[in-house]
Amino acid sequence: MRPIPILMYHNIAAAPRGVKLRGLYVSPGRFARQMQLLRRLGYQGLSMGAALPWLRGEREGKVAVVTFDDGYVDNLEHALPVLRGLGFSATCFVVSGAVGSYNRWDAEQLGVRKPLMDATGLRAWQAAGMEIGAHTRTHPHLPQLAATDLEGEIRGSRQDLEELLGLPVTQFCYPYGEAGEREMTAAQAAGYAAAVTVRRGRARPGESLWSLPRVSVGGHHAPHVFPLQILTRHEDRH
Ligand SMILES: [Zn+2]
User: Fold this and answer.
1) Which residue numbers in the chain have pLDDT < 50?
2) Which residues surround ligand 1, an ion (CB under 5 A)?
3) Which of 46, 61, 93, 169 has minimal Cβ neighbours within 10 Å of its Cβ?
């Protein structure tokens, strides 16, 4: 069966001067060209929830999953209009304890405070047909947590977001992609349907839904890398 690229984005914006990890930024123009290319190649861009039948191997076809980590305001401003224009859906993984705040977990390290969507923004994202997934409460290193804290971060973030937004939250994203057996078991027990990591590769239909690999799309890549990531074994061989 055809492998499924689960695309991972962070910021859709021009990288500010002097910011570290410029790879976290994809410019709005480049993002639009990438989504248009998917369409031209015959791919449907889907949220994690919508893509589950393909990920489970129940349906076959050209599907790419579009995900955004952390819940930045620029996703709403720059990615949403492109996705809507193409009839695509996407999942944004939100840190429930940082709604309307900024990236407290890495602002110092990156040298930039990036605004996160507030509740109004998250509702606008959902109202446009997009999905909200959970990305813990505080973006911790999960393997370092005691069991009760782990439960609060994984199950608690789902409860927080469901309460805030009034819709089921079925998708989870491990901060820093850190997912050992304990974290995977906790995500499953918390009632999610699937969980994504930062392990590099395209997803194979029917593989475990608790440590799904992703394709990291970075602004530091040359433009020709994106089609290689989607269409070839560029990501899979690592
Ligand atoms: Zn994150």
Assistant:
1) none
2) 69-70
3) 61
Tell me if 220 sits within 8 A of 26, measured CB to CB.
Answer: no
Taking the C-alpha atoms of residue 189 and residue 202, their distance in angstroms, rounded to an integer, is 25
Ligand 1 center to 176 CA (angstroms): 6
In angstroms, the CA 23 to CA 114 distance is: 15
CB 228 within 8 A of CB 5: no
CB of 69 closer than 8 Å to CB of 6: no
CATH number attached to the domain at 6-231: 3.20.20.370
What pTM value is reported for the model?
0.97
CA of 85 to the centre of ligand 1 (A): 26
For 190-213, the pLDDT digits (tens) are 999 999 999 999 999 999 999 999
**Ligand 1 centroid vs 138 CA: distance in angstroms?**
10
